[in-house]
User: Fold these one by one.
Assistant:
Number 1:
Amino acid sequence: MLVLHGTGVSSGIAIGKAYVLHRERPEVPEYALPEHLIEDEVRRFNSAIATARTQLERIRNHIPKSAPPEISSIIDTHLLILHDKMISEAPVVTMRQKQCNAEWALKTQSDLLAAVFEQMDDPYLRSKKTDVSQVVDRILRNLLMSTDEEHEQITDALDGQIVVANDLTPADTVLLKHTRIGAFVTNLGGPISHTAILARSLEIPAIVAVHNATRYIRNGEDLIVDGKLGVLVVAAERSIVAEYQRRQKDIVHLKRELETIKASRSETRDGCAIILNANIELPDDIKAATKVAAQGIGLYRTEFLYMNRPDLPGEEEQYKAYAKVAKAVAGKPVTIRTLDLGADKRVDGGSRGSDTVTINPALGLRAVRLCLHDTSLFRPQLRAILRASAHGQVRLMIPMLSSLGEMFRVLDLIEETKAELKHKNEPFDSELQVGGMIEVPAAAVSADLFAPHLDFLSIGTNDLIQYTLAIDRVDEAVNYLYDPLHPSVLRLIAMTIRAGKSAGIPVAMCGEMAGDARYTRLLLGLGLSEFSMHPSALLEIKKIVRESDLAELRRFADKVLDTRDTSELHALVDKMNES
Ligand code: PEP
Ligand code: MG
């Protein structure tokens, strides 16, 4: 029996067989071949291509009918790339000219293509580089592996198995949802990476930052995942398995208990109403939000509509998706966040490969910056959101604001879009509420400057913590520095809440901190009255709200803000949670 530790990012217990994904780029050998062997080498290359085609077609046939169309789109893109002359023919020319082996000819061609993609101005086309590299890796593995070593693909059905991988992108995680996996474990990753957030919202138990998990674990080995404590047990003894089975039953029992407060009001003991909303990533997630009686959608991460597909969603497709959500929640507010692509969220689900440039993408052209840089990407989305506002209580939210200038440019674009729609007689809500995310420290510090121009603010603690503490949210090496209770983070949160109150606009929180039971009472004490979180956390948070006395928590929160000593601060928060 072996016990490994990592960071538990999505609670729950899973017991199942390991399914190890080896997706690191294989080592590519280079050697010269005598002329008479070149045609054999070409045949070997063509056969690897044919195998790749069969594999991709098989994967496509295994995709469940219920899966969204973007899942088969990614496979179609790979098939198109596979058939492109640049991949299927150019390496053959190199083999014949340079008399080299197939792997090397393919690698040379793939390096050339990567350089071409890298120079493209269009960020969308530039990101297609990852698709090409995934197809090249597939062919390389076919060339390097013996035929019985059938390599993995995460789009196969994986009922109950535990995926072990070096790293998973948010797009991978969306794909995993449809394979019915039991849990996942990765060598890399952090607790507020988008992959971790998705795991929580999909209710997939998950542990990240288990160093060398892919090295120690073999395919088919028996695993136990405790996603809360971050414990991974390999080949557990029978008594240990029985203990975890018992804990699984306890979790089911607890969930049933929480069900009983579903219909109860969300208010504190002293009668203050607290809004509990849900975060969603795809229109289908509405079902989970409705199941826990969320009062609305506090964050709809629209970028997931752009992932795992070869093309961009057009205005019409976006309009249908947003209108579907607006109608499905029937009169409750839906906060549609405009595109937050960039950083770890790519259009094509590309992973952070070793070939990625080393500049920090989290500080780059992301979210509202990308949208303002390329308004041809942004305008269709604004039109789609405005049109969807005719079908329900839609609110528009701008991510990653860091300057007033950005906010004014977006507000102008919204006004222009309204005029355009009016001209075309397209219905929309002329009173559409527009809010801003406070997730960059600069915006938190100047929240009082933003607030008078917006209808609401929403604190994105995932990025706020990342940028305040200078810790990359996907880098496991700095996970230990992640601390929502860091005094600087708490001060920025308090400042934002105060700024909203002075301007008379609501302040919500939609980062992971809002769905973490350890911080609910402190946030209530700081004056937060609107929380948005993954649906699976909502009832637990409601239970805490209903057992809290706001007047008492306010006194505690003031003390927390005044406390200088970290351990004293943590002790105070613990005391708050016990009160
Ligand atoms: C956040 O940063 O807290 C947030 C809610 O946005 P995202 O996690 O999508 O970056
Ligand atoms: Mg964010």
Number 2:
Amino acid sequence: MKFGTKTIHAGQEPDPTTGAIMTPIYQTSTYIQASPGDHKGYEYSRTGNPTRSALEKNLAALENGVHGLCFGSGLGAIDAIIKLLSPGDEVISTNDLYGGTYRIFTKIFEFYGIKFHFIGMDNADKVESYINENTKMIWAETPTNPMMNIIDIKACAQVAKKHGLLLAVDNTFATPYLQQPLTLGADIVLHSATKYLGGHSDVVLGALVVKNDDLAARLAFIQNATGAICGPMDSFLVLRGIKTLHVRMDRHMSNAKALVAHLNEHPAVEKVFYPGLESHPGHALATRQMRGYGGMISFVVKGDNHEDAVSVVSAFKVFTLAESLGGVESLAGHPASMTHASIPKAQREATGVTDGLIRLSVGIEDIQDLLHDVDSSLSVLL
Ligand code: P1T
């Protein structure tokens, strides 16, 4: 099946008992056993639930993987990945990443003896230079949140293979429509399905997809043993959202393209970060690695100061000032004080997350309204 058919059909069969076309919300915690161990494939909903299974199969197909595993949030999924490691193990991670990922690494897992090296991942040789005998994993997020840097998945996968490491890729910003990390050699792909996969800002959910059976079994053990699963209603909402993923992404991207062109010429804007811009350092790589450049844009207001950025994000009328991204509605955020506030100021500024940076999650509204909103909000600075 092609991608736009998989979104609608993969992992989903008409319900065997009623013929219902849509996967039912199996709102049950447990399942009958005729005698101990004699059941129809499900025994307890932490271990497995048919609505969650349909979503897990669907995501495995979209990512060209074999096994999907769903969790109560993107961070719940990240937590499961790091639990593959032991005290003393080391991870090389991009230094430009979602603030909550930085927080779970430094405030939870460092306490359990895992060491993280946060580095710029513009070059796979640089990644390789941080490897020592304790290194077990490379952690990439691409495009990065919020600076829209592009990391070469194939080159990182080669380094990971050479040294026997796992490569985990957070594919939240790209979605499997634009980029399939497993096909490029990654071992684990991670999603905050809260974002584009769900697509309607009505659910929090996380997902992993892998190809390797042993790795899947270890992750399924962690999923069941630590219990950070998602419920059937939330699984249903993400399954429904995914059916329109490819259609939504095309519109997110055409709207983003028009906004980028406009912002790039705007007198109140200092710099625009979008991999579709030819001036973006990751443009050539993004063109090779992705089907399109996505719906996320970051930009710095002229003068790069906190007050001006806050006045602009507070003036939006169609864009809503809010955490999160990837929904049909346009959202604006101020990373320094919102999504990336958990990263120490000096460290976040070193990666470009300055006080004047604004992040836009471009929705699928009419582009004229979005352009008008950006213009009138930026006019407070002119
Ligand atoms: O919010 P949750 O579903 O737990 O997913 C965490 C997460 C993981 N990875 C990336 C790239 C993310 O952007 C996120 C969540 N991000 C936001 C809430 C945000 O506004 O950036």
